[in-house]
Amino acid sequence: MEDTQKIQVVSCSGASNTGKYADDVARRLAVAGHANLICLAKVAIGDEPLINGIKSKSVPVVVLDGCPFNCAEVIMARAGITDIIHLNTTDFGIIKGKTPVTEDKITEIAEHIKNLKHEKA
Questions:
Q1: Domain range for 66
Q2: Mean pLDDT per segment of 10 residues, for the chain of length 121 residues?
């Protein structure tokens, strides 16, 4: 699969277990060749070449937040990136500050995102 066909994924990398889930899922998708990662910090500081590149691609942008504060979604919206697929790790039964990070749950969320990708293709 060429890079142009891969989904773009940006994730929360917050301090809680929910942020770790989001980050681990995004990295798993990238390592497996299913996604290209977007640097949320660069979007937050207004990196115009990156933001314009995200907007110019015709592939889905998946924004994976860790908790209902939805920091990643807010950062993307402030950069004018609103054509996204937004998910939250808490939508998968993860409780912030309580649910231990497990490989099974990371796999479940990653598979869900891969299936979304196929729906949009």
A1: 3-120
A2: 72 95 97 96 98 94 96 98 96 96 98 77 42
Q: How far apart are the first and last CA of the chain?
A: 12
Write the DSSP assignment of 12-25 as a string of letters. Answer: ---SSHHHHHHHHH
Tokens of 1: 């699969």
What DSSP assignment string belongs to 34-99? Answer: SEEE--HHHHHTT-HHHHHHHHH--S-EEEEESSTT-HHHHHHHHTT----EEEEGGGGT--TTTS
User: Which pTM was predicted?
Assistant: 0.91
Nearest to 73 by CA among 4, 9, 119: 9
For the chain, the domain total comes to: 1
Q: Where residue 98 sits, what CATH number does that domain have?
A: 3.40.50
